[in-house]
Design brief:
Layout (H helix, E strand, L loop, with lengths): L4 E2 L22 H11 L3 H13 L16 H8 L5 E8 L4 E7 L5 E8 L4 E4 L3 E3 L14 E4 L2 H17 L11 E4 L9 H12 L13 E5 L3 H8 L6 E5 L5 H7 L8 H15 L3 E7 L7 H12 L7 E7 L13 H13 L3 E4 L13 H5 L1
Parallel strand pairs: 5-8, 8-9, 9-10, 10-11, 11-12, 12-13
Antiparallel strand pairs: 1-2, 2-3, 3-4, 4-5, 6-7
Length: about 375
């Protein structure tokens, strides 16, 4: 890995209050028409702006030359207000991993990570400023929840990443953003309305959205069972990632406190039902912590828990070498323990991989950079 490179720090404005400014990505078709009327412009003006934003990934009014020059700034300013101000961008892996710390309109800090691989480019986005789930090994969870992000604040992270890929800034030449994972700051299903709104913008064809495949979008959750069931009925075939981290209630109560409300059996059953209804394989996320949850017997127990539903092909286990938080008692598992964990799960017929971690040296676990700030 290369040494991280950083952009200069942007000083913080005073923290404000209220809702994020209204943005094109927040608006339904009817609301877009109403916005045009408010501006005293024909409806097609909004469609022109939407084409620039979603199809051309353009946010600078100066480049929207099909808008009337005298009204260009006013039109773009009303529909595309600045939502994310970059505070700092760090690069690793020879520039193919880029982590950006963003400041929102009210001073809240969130993070996103763009990762380019040989066959794909993925953006990991935040859905909340902070998080209320209080998982003790997670940097974001230590700071509590500041607020939910709006649909547009989520979408704008994706548009920025897509524009970055298209510009050729990332080594490898101009490319296309192919994947989105909701694994940044926050619990996505605790901000259900905004997250689903953002997913709908991502999958809608231009100029109504980015035209991405729902199958390339992953929504992560620590296990909000009612929301998993709501997502099951949503009709959008995203990949569900369940952050399980322990196969037994005693340990999971400690690692994922929401488990005291929705236990392992209830959570896994809801995930299995999602797979059954959507025909989409669920990813079980399991952060590997030394001598905490990485014992061989827990691998066997995890296999038994997942196999309880008969058809093991419904699930894939993604073991994640823990990205350590300074000062935490939770540390990364030994390589040999992770290898044994894989062996035992595969012996029970469960597809298992160890995640290719990126950006350890730039605090790429979401929440670490904001906490340092």
């Amino acid at each position: 890995m290369t040494e991280p490179r950083a952009l200069p720090l942007v000083l913080a404005p005073p923290k404000g209050r209220g809702k994020p400014p209204r943005h094109l990505a927040d608006l339904s078709a009817e609301e877009r028409a109403a916005a045009a009327a408010e501006l005293g412009e024909p409806a097609f003006r909004v469609k022109q702006v939407a084409h620039h934003y979603f199809a051309r990934l353009e946010r600078d009014p100066a480049n929207m030359t099909d808008l009337p020059a005298k009204n260009r700034d006013a039109i773009a300013g009303a529909l595309l207000p600045a939502l994310l101000t970059p505070v700092r961008t760090l690069e690793a892996d020879k520039g193919t991993t880029r982590k950006t710390l963003w400041r929102l309109f009210d001073g809240s800090l969130v993070e996103s990570v763009l990762m380019r691989y040989p066959s794909r480019a993925t953006i990991c986005v935040s859905s909340q400023a902070g998080c209320a789930m209080a998982c003790p090994f997670c940097a974001t969870g230590q700071g509590g929840l500041q607020r939910n992000m709006s649909t547009a604040e989520i979408v704008d992270q994706v548009v920025d990443a897509a524009a970055t890929m298209a510009s050729g800034v990332v080594p490898g030449g101009p490319g296309r953003l192919s994947n989105v994972v909701f694994m940044g700051m926050g619990e996505p299903l605790a901000n259900y309305k905004s997250v689903i709104g953002a997913v709908r913008r991502m999958v809608a064809p231009a100029p109504d959205g980015l035209g991405m495949s729902a199958r390339n979008i992953t929504v992560s959750t620590v296990g909000l069972v009612p929301r998993i069931r709501q997502l099951t009925d949503e009709g959008i075939p995203v990949t569900l990632a369940l952050s399980l981290h322990a196969p037994d209630d005693e340990l999971r109560d400690e690692l994922v406190p929401i488990n005291t409300h929705f236990n392992v059996a209830q959570t896994v059953e809801a995930a299995w039902d999602y797979a059954r209804v959507t025909k989409r394989r669920v990813s079980i996320e399991y952060a590997m912590m030394r001598d905490i949850n990485d014992q061989a017997w827990r691998a066997d127990l995890l296999g038994d828990v997942l196999n309880a539903y008969g058809d093991w092909s419904w699930v894939h286990v993604n073991l994640i070498p823990l990205n350590e938080v300074p000062g935490s008692k939770y540390t990364r598992s030994r390589d040999e323990d992770m290898d044994e964990f894989v062996r035992r799960l595969e012996a029970k017929g469960i597809s298992t991989t160890i995640r290719d971690t990126r950006g350890d040296e730039i605090d790429a676990a979401c929440g670490q950079l904001a906490a340092a700030e």
